[in-house]
Amino acid sequence: MSASFLGSTRAASPTVIRLDRDRSAGLLPALASLVFRGLALLVAGAVHAPLLALAVTVAVTPVWLVAVGRPALAVALVVVAGLVGCSVGWVRPGWVHASRRLLVGQTVRVLVYRPRWETACLAAGATTRTGSTVHVPGLVRHTRTPHGSDELIVRMAPGQTLASWAGCADALASSLGVYSITAHAAERPGWVVLDVLRRDPLAVERTAPDPARTPRPVLPVLSGSSRGFSRTPRLIPARAGLSAPSGSAASGVVLGRDEHGHDLVLDPYSTAHAGMQGATRSGKSSACYTLLAALAHRADVIVCGVDPSGLLLDPFTTRNGGRGGAFIATGTSREDITRAADALARLVALMDDRVRELRADGLDKLTTFTASSPAIWCVMEEYPGLLAAAKAIDNEAGAKPGDRLAPKIAAHLGRLVKEGAKVGVFVLVLAQRMSADALNTDDRMNLALRITLRVDNGDAVAMLHDGLTRDRTQAVRQFAPGVALAESPGQGVRRVRMLYTDYPTYRARVAAGLAATVAAPVIRADGTPGVDVVGSVVTLPSTDADESSECAA
């Protein structure tokens, strides 16, 4: 918290209102009170909003000059002010934006927050009472943030806690006429910080930038291992060195932005698995396109997995230049599901090899990734539908317990989720609706990043985000396409707007990324050339094929 916040004492004490005082005063005292309040407002404006006071003075001065018989001077002042304004608008120095933000903030502070504060707190129940005395929290400071939101520093009334403010935040937002208010703890005991949004910042769609325009350093490559885990360094050409060093500031992929202007970032080298759910046309596929298109430009990341429709992972297949073909399977026929189980089994074997390498080196986890020892992201597209198809095939064939495909797929995925993060094997689970049958509690708790777009009921929200209020859970059903709840370690649940990428752009960007990293080695299973396992596609009612083919708006 800033030093000005820690040292501020202005309006620090809560206001005390006597409920039993006599309000039946005469007209003259009421008029005097009104004049006094007007003067107090002018003084408060000069103190709390000096830039606003200066702007008002400049605007009023020509009118005053005309009133006192100096019209020529008034015209000259207007002309000079206009010339200065046009010059500044043409040059656009950096301080102009900051001054505009300060002016807007001071205007809102003087005309909205301070005049309405006492009434809003009383209406929202953000006060405490002892006998006939009502204690109104003190509005200490208002700050306009660079992202356009407001931050109110409040000294709580006696008996209030952070939970008290969390409970009345919605009512206070309605009383102040703003979109939303979020309360969080301040550094000083007895104080609270309110993040105020005057409008919905997530209403406007944002397009994902082209990952090829992000410069990245040349990447050292290791070679010589049958499973792509080795320690002999060499350098690949600069055109293929598109990956930032693991753990660097540039290593994360920006997926969206939250209400307060903070980016939602997935670090492909350290994010311990991710889960994303959303109904058809909720924007889930578009969010996946943004992530996978960015990963395609990294020589030290491989994208693989199981995709029943074949649309999401097709750009990463070997015939399209992908390097993880040995671990890609598509389709929903019995042969395709069998190949999917085999692909996951090969991925588990690679994970076990890396674990043995770590044990031999006396390490507990893999932290450095290269083109031949890459981070591996296994995408499980419409995982509940995949399991449902596998169970249906097992039942139709009358398979014995040891030959059933669904338990094999679930067991392989469970091992990857529980053990893979330490050796750079990560899982992205996608579903229209997460269910306990598809992903058990132990596996769900290992998903570090959880994203929920619009879903059809609150139970699905609780699968990924436990402990939300009923109102907040039900609000997810009304989310616009691309708006989501996101939760990650240390961040809590926040509302975000996911970046938009359409399907043609996704395919083009993946192709460009794979072409740029063509010098990086293909990762093979058991030392044999990787060949994609591509089978026939069987349409299932529970799959998300429609959403993948018809991009989210």
Task: Please give a structural write-up.
- The chain is of the alpha/beta class and 553 residues long.
- It has 15 helices and 20 strands.
- It has an eleven-stranded mixed sheet with strand order 11-10-19-18-17-12-16-15-13-14-20.
- Helix 5 crosses helix 6 and helix 8 runs parallel beside helix 10.
Can you tag this structure with a few keywords?
4-stranded antiparallel sheet, disordered C terminus, 11-stranded mixed sheet, 39% helix, 553 residues, 20 strands, alpha/beta, disordered N terminus, elongated
Q: Assess the beta-strand content as a share of residues.
A: 15-25%
Poorly predicted runs of 5 or more residues: 1-11, 18-24, 216-249, 527-553
Q: What portion of residues is helical?
A: 25-40%
How are the strands of the biggest sheet laid out side by side? 11-10-19-18-17-12-16-15-13-14-20
Rg (CA only): 30 Å
Number of helices: 15
According to DSSP, the number of beta strands is 20
- The biggest beta sheet, please? 11 strands, mixed
Derived from helix and strand composition plus strand pairing, the structural class reads alpha/beta
Termini Cα gap: 39 Å
Molecular shape: elongated
Mean pLDDT comes to: 78
Keywords: ATP-binding, Membrane, Nucleotide-binding, Transmembrane, Transmembrane helix
Protein name: FtsK domain-containing protein
Pfam family, one: FtsK_SpoIIIE
InterPro entries: FtsK/SpoIIIE/SftA (IPR050206), FtsK_dom (IPR002543), P-loop_NTPase (IPR027417)
